Amino acid sequence: MRQYYCTFFMLLFASFLSGQQAKTYIKAGLFYDSEQNEFLENKLIVVENGLIVEVSDANKANTDGHRWIDLSAYVVLPGLIDAHTHVLFSQSPKDDFAEHSVITLTMESEALRVLRGSKRARSYLDVGITSIKDLGNSGLYLDVALRDAIEEGTVIGPRIFASGPILSAPGGQIYGVEPKHQDLISGEYRIIRGVEDAKIAVQEHVNQGVDLIKICADNLPNETVLSLEEMQAIVRTAHGYGLKVTAHAVTDESAQKAIEAGVDGIEHGFNISDSTLNMMAKKDVYLVPTENSREYMELFSELAGYDFGSDQWIDRYREAMTERLQKAIKIGVTIVAGSDNYNELNVSRGSSSIDMFKAYFDSGMTPLDILQSATILSATHLGKQNEIGVLKKGAKADIIALKGNVLTEFYPTIKRVVFVMKDGKIVKSAD
Ligand SMILES: [Zn+2]
């Protein structure tokens, strides 16, 4: 009897659901095909139950009786991806990173930290970023908690791919902490003590439901580094569970060692050499160039209160970043877009993050290549190329629209996001 009722209600529920969720037709002005890296005209996207069920020529479809969204005046793209965020961490430009990390761990409750993080996460949707890869500095799995809250609809925000605590050598990135207080650091980093421990750390992360593994190949200004054998154990174990591994690497030496260990990606790579870039191209290891535009650096410098020839310092920084990015592209390294912006610059976190697009553009990347780095290339290196970063049958209905000409007026246009849909639900409307 009980089973009978169960079946009856399930049928009722299913018919109610299907009645509620008619197809939605979206007419695109220009349609971005991220796989081919080109714009197409006259395309219609059909959305049902949060997924794209068809992409067809606009004049062929019969749209009678279905919901209709006219984006024919706009450029339509898959939701963008920021592959390097820290939504559970924030500091002012005047703050010292290590001091502020200690304050965060001792004076900001986990509850408050997550609530603040959820507001930052929400702001990514407003700028058209519908997925983020959150790479640590998030306490003990607060990123996983926020991801789940968003996924179940408790909180509105982008899709989060969470790394959990960063795996790192003793001290993590929090310098200057006395021996008796080193335990504090374990609240923010998973400290690795040997090859066997490296394997256990990945298993702990797997049990907590992380989506990928982030390691610190170097810890500068702390001098400690993970050994090659520790990184190999991490990569082997993570890959065994189907998880990608991405490595923070500032020095060329640590980047090389991480690549030798088999990581999937390098974050930052500020001082990377040509031979390391060649290794990356050969082994298909992607680079996330977390660089900022001149305008960002000037504002940061002003807010930080720097009064020493900051113009020259910024000039040198921008020259080095431009040279590095152009070399990487020439050598054939895959570029994945990631901001790493965690400073409070009097704008929302999402607005601050899209500065990376300006930086890449100023460093000589073409608009099309930037869009591909923030969509399908990013998705592919997460193993999610059929779900996000692409507008095709079976992908999640994460769809955005821009007003303007993204090819001739790239940055003003990419900032003008007029429509955002995530999982088939409209979060920002064009009218
Ligand atoms: Zn970072």
Automatic annotation (TrEMBL):
The keyword Signal applies. Residues 75-427 form the Amidohydrolase-related domain. Keywords: Signal. It holds the Pfam family Amidohydro_1. Residues 1-22 form the signal peptide. The keyword Signal applies. This is Amidohydrolase family protein. It comes from Flagellimonas profundi. The lineage of its organism: Bacteria, Pseudomonadati, Bacteroidota, Flavobacteriia, Flavobacteriales.
